[in-house]
Amino acid sequence: METVAIKIPASPVYLQVVRLVAAGLASRLKFTLDDIEDLKIAVDEMSAYFTGSNGRDGTIEVTFTVQEDRLEIRGAGTFSPGEKVRTELTEFSRMILETVADSASLEQMDGTPTFNLVKSKAS
Amino acid sequence: MSERATLSKDEVRGLFQEYKEATPDEQPALREKLVEQHIGLVEFLARRFRNRGEPLEDLVQVGTIGLLKAIERFDLDREVEFSTYATPTIVGELKRHFRDKGWAVRVPRRLQELHLELTKVVGHLGQDLGRSPTVAEIAEATGTTEETVLEGLEIAQAYNFTSLDAPIDTDEGGSTSFADQLGEEDEHLENLEYRASLAPEMAKLPERERRILYLRFFKGLTQSEIADRLEISQMHVSRLLNRTLSNLRTALEEE
After folding, report:
1. pLDDT recorded at residue B6
2. Low pLDDT (below 50) residues in chain A
3. Which of A70, B28, B213, B218 has the smallest CB count inside 10 Å?
């Protein structure tokens, strides 16, 4: 089990980097293109909670854990005091994530908004 | 407009009536008649765009796609003449044509070629393998690296932004069978709208985007399967889906 971590400003501009890392790691695990596309959608969906559509004052640390047949992704957001971040998935998100990921959750961990995503390789 | 034998308004309505009631075997001939009857309108509208460096014949062809869409969607119960109804659809198709050309100019040539190559290879590989290909397989087939493929896939998302109001795309084929693709799933689409308090936003989506959302998230079809069904490339499905989700996210956030 190995991990890769990146830290980005909480802005949608940098999500491309997160998607590329996710896709690169999934590619190493020999995910199919369909699964990679799903993974990217899941990453976007989760990250959008932290970045909003215009960005927020803060950073997101995204940690990828590479398992044999799956990728686990955790994102932890650190924001300046004024920023309000939702920590509950909307019904819309749940609908999307049910389809594109094995599991997905959004929570407060020790006061830090955190998302967790798991995506397995198609069997 | 044109010198062809023109039918009266009532005769046109009659022809539409016949067309809508016709069996699938009879429809092509009747559709042909309807197109013939309105090609003058297409030519008239196409001429308004002719000083933009495109041959008129090409523009007429593009406009005819719009005409075909309008024919499929025209509802006789509407108290509006077909030509009035069809004009915005035809003009929309012509405008989109130029917008797509604009896309071709802005994207660096190398990336354009990479994108085209990937679109083609992903489709072929999918058919050969009977499943979605891996990045390594795509890299091998295109004689490039995995990194380049990943970059190419990501770039497909970055370009060609259009608004939610964009007319339905039918590049990459499938324009004439579009109407056939609708229908059976309409009632399911209705259900989709009522979920997640999305109704107002969903209603604004072009039909194709709504359908892709439905097929992906309610029917559980993969992007490749949707691509097959809609006769467009998987990369195009991916682009439309990502764009739609992103727009919906923004719209919901602003609520």
Report:
1. 74
2. none
3. B28
- pLDDT given for residue B180 in this prediction: 36
Quote the pLDDT of residue A79: 94
- Chain B residues near residue A90 by CB distance under 8 angstroms: 196, 252
> Nearest by CB to A33, which of B132, B196, B245?
B132
User: How many residues does this entry show for chain B?
Assistant: 255
Both structure tokens of B195:
């979920």
pLDDT at site B183 = 40
Q: Supply the ipTM of this predicted assembly.
A: 0.79
Nearest to A59 by CA among A10, A20, A15, A92: A10
Question: Is A44 touching B (CB cutoff 8 A)?
Answer: yes
Residues of chain B with pLDDT under 70: 1-5, 51-53, 99-109, 156-199, 254-255
Judge: A33–B217 Cβ closer than 8 Å, yes or no: no
- Per-residue model confidence (pLDDT) at position B96: 79
Chain A CB contacts of B238 below 8 Å:
37
Q: Judge contact between A73 and A97, C-beta under 8 A.
A: no
Residue A114 has a pLDDT of 96
Q: Which residues of A touch B250 (CB under 8 A)?
A: 53
Whole-number pLDDT of residue B33: 92
Across the interface, whether the CB atoms of A52 and B253 are under 8 A apart is answered: yes
User: Distance from B208 to chain A by nearest Cα, in Å?
Assistant: 18
Distances in Å between the alpha carbon of A102 and those of A48, B29, B133, B216?
Answer: 19, 50, 20, 15
b/e sequence A13-40, b meaning 16+ C-beta within 10 Å = ebbbebbbbbbbbbbebebbbbbbbbbb
Q: How many CB atoms lie within 10 A of CB B202?
A: 22
